[in-house]
Every structure is written in structure tokens, then in C-alpha cells.
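Lecture notes, unit on binding sites. The following record was shown on slide 14. It pairs a sequence with uridine-5'-diphosphate-glucuronic acid.
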Amino acid sequence: MRISVIGCGYLGAVHAACMAKLGHDVVGIDVDPRKISELQSGRAPFFEPGLPELLDEVLATGRLKFSADMADAKGAEVHFLCVGTPQRKGEYAADMRYVDGAFSSLLDSLEPGNVVVGKSTVPVGTAARLADDLAERHPDAVLAWNPEFLREGFAVKDTLSPDRFVYGVPAGAAGERATAVLDEVYSTPLSLGTRRLTSDYATAELVKAAANSFLATKISFINAMAEVCEVTGADVTLLADAIGMDERIGRKFLNAGVGFGGGCLPKDIRAFMARAGELGADQALTFLREVDDINVRRRTRTVELTRTLVGGSLLGKRIAVLGAAFKPDSDDVRDSPALSIAAQLQLQGADVTVTDPEAIEGARRRFPELMYEADLMQAIHKADALLLLTEWQEYRNLAPEAATLAVHTRNILDGRNVLDPARWRAAGWNYKGIGRP
Ligand code: UGA
């Protein structure tokens, strides 16, 4: 099929490359010419495992092109909207200007019979509103809402073989046509067994909001348990293992630590609360405010734990922060707990050096006042405390004996509970985990 993908960020660039991998002819479009020229020459503008190799492979087939001109969407039968919906400045609600802008400029490139497919995470009601606009300008085009569930770090795999597809489509023949077209787009993963559900627009939009809310709730639940463990001397990692053995609960997303960040979970639960408020259903989601509060509290709590770890005062203490990205295998620093903690420590007088295998450039742009060091052993040189805040494999592998030779004082805060406390303590370290004795 001929496909256009509007927006080439974390979602769109991966989607465009994966659609070409599935055999389609794809044009990826973005307003940022720098991003387009990088992608066109096979370089991913962000770190995502497997994406550079995939870009090389599909660019060589000639099935994938990139363009900064929306007019190049003309000729495609299916148009995927993949632009961002960040949090509005000073508000909880989503900023819809990129979706609205991309959609209205796409209207000029549509041809009779085209299918427009929204993938962006949007407030419920958006698809119905855009469908009305579409019907006015192009009565025989159809809109579908097909939320995306990919995780950064696994984006290629999640796009090529997701655990489910959800199609929000209108009732009647138009909806059947959109479903048939999407089935053709995704014929390979569907033939390999990916499940597919069709629904009305609102349900499809809500599936996405509900999924991310549930994941955020799971993380905040275990972090709340960590707070209780801390005052009782219990161990939250054992607690998670034990409750996770109940299949109804499951062990995934029960890792206590410095909490969730990134460009999705934090802003999605806030946008969901804001939208519920507009719809008069705010009471239904007041628990998400608590989920958010627990998560934000993790960050201040980590600052306090660090203060205690270094003897009661942060002033002039050399702190090495291991990790800047919001999670490993990503260079994304949007709402990163690690960076937010690093910045708070610095504000309170500590001398903070941040290291990360991939995210230093982005981190420096957001927090230029922090010091950065790409080399791990240099970063921990003469440190009074190490803070493992993003669990990259190389930090999990750090040997306490090697770290001992570099640091000033053997203090470590394991903000993701991924190190072996016994091993670090045996090597003479003052080890502190989250919600662990
Ligand atoms: C999340 C969802 O997992 C995806 O399904 C969804 O498609 C995506 O948002 C989106 O809306 O686009 P992502 O933001 O890539 O994906 O990251 P996650 O893997 O969900 O991690 C989010 C945060 O939670 C990270 O900061 C991670 O460190 C933290 N986390 C995760 C925990 O603190 N504990 C856990 O047990 C799991």
C-alpha cells in the first residue's frame, strides 16, 4: 500500500520504517527539515535499538522516503497521524496544536477514498471532532483511530509484532472499509497471530488512556508499598516477587524505585484527568492525582535519602548520577526522574556529575547547569555518593571493587533496586536501596 506517516518523532519515524519493512511504500513527513535529512540519510535522530539497521535496510529498497513537504502525502491511500501531544504549559491538558495543525494541512493533500489513521495519544472525543472536519472537506474519506502501544527501547519489535491492534472506526460501511484497509496494512502481524479489536472512536481513545493509567498506577502502587516497607523494615522487592506470583497481579511493572517518567505516562495521566474534568467525570479519576503525587514524591524522597547517605548535608558533596534517560535503552530525557533528582541535588548545594551512555546531549540541553561526563569511571571519580537512577546494563554490571578504586567514599543509592546489596556491602559499601532494609 502507499502510506504517508505525518510526524517523524519517536512514534512516527519507527512507524514509517516498520511499515516499509512490512512491504509498503512509505513517505515520512515532518516539519523539521533537519530530522528529515538525517532520516533520509539513514540516521535515526534519537537512540532506539534496531532503528538504524532497519532504516538502512528499508531505505535501500527504495520503499521509504522522507520529506518536509506535506504535499508529498498526496498519492498515499493511508495517512498515519503520528505527531506529539505534549502537556500544555502550566496545565494538565494535552496540547493539541500539533495534531490539529497536521490534520488541517493534511486535508489539502487528501484524495477521494483516502483513509486517515490517528495514532497520536489524544483526549477522548478528538477523533469524533476530526471526523466531522474530514466529512465536511472530503465526504468519501474515512478516519480511523488506531492507538499505539509501543515502548521506547523496544519500539521496532513492538511496532512489527504488537500484542494487539485496536481500530476505532465509525459505524457502517465507512468503518468496514477502514477496517479492511488497516487489516491490509497490518496483514503480516495479523497473519502471525496479533489480536485485533474494533470499536467506536471513544473506546479506542480510552483504551490508550486506560492502559497508560493502569501501568502508572501499578508503578505508584509498588512505590507506595516501598514507602511502607521503609518504615517497617520490610523489603519491597520480595513483596513484589511474592504478590507478582499471583497471576491476577503479575510481576511486571512492579519495580519500585525513583518512579516513572518519559514523554508518555506522566503527561497521559494528567491529560486524562483534565479531559475527565471537562466531561464532568473528574471524580472517577481522582485516584490518578494520588498516583501522580506518589510518583513525584519519589523524587524528593530520593534527594532526602541522598542527604542522609552523605551524612546530613549535601553542601559541596560530590554526587555521581548514573543515568539521565527516563529509562534504559533510550536517550529520551523528557520528565526523567534521574535528571529531576540531579537538578534538585545541585540546587541544594551538591556538586553533581551526570553520566549516561546515550542521553548526555539531550540532558545538557535541558539542564545546562549540571556537569556531564560520558565515561563512567571518570564520572564517579572522587564521588561522595553514587546514585544509580536509570538501570542501563553497564551500571547493573558495575563491580563494587572497581568502583571502590575511583570514589572518595563508598556510598551507593540504588534508585532502581537492581544491584545485589550483599555484594556491595561485602565490598565495604554503604548500600541503600528503595524500600529495602
Ligand atoms: C509507555 C507504555 O509502557 C507504552 O505501552 C506506551 O505505548 C507508551 O508509554 C506511550 O504512551 O507511547 P514508555 O514511555 O516507553 O512506554 O516507557 P515504560 O517502559 O512504560 O516506562 C515508563 C517509566 O516507568 C520509566 O521511567 C520506567 O523507568 C518506569 N518504570 C517502569 C518503573 O519505575 N517501574 C516499573 O516497574 C516499570
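Take-home: The mean pLDDT is 97.
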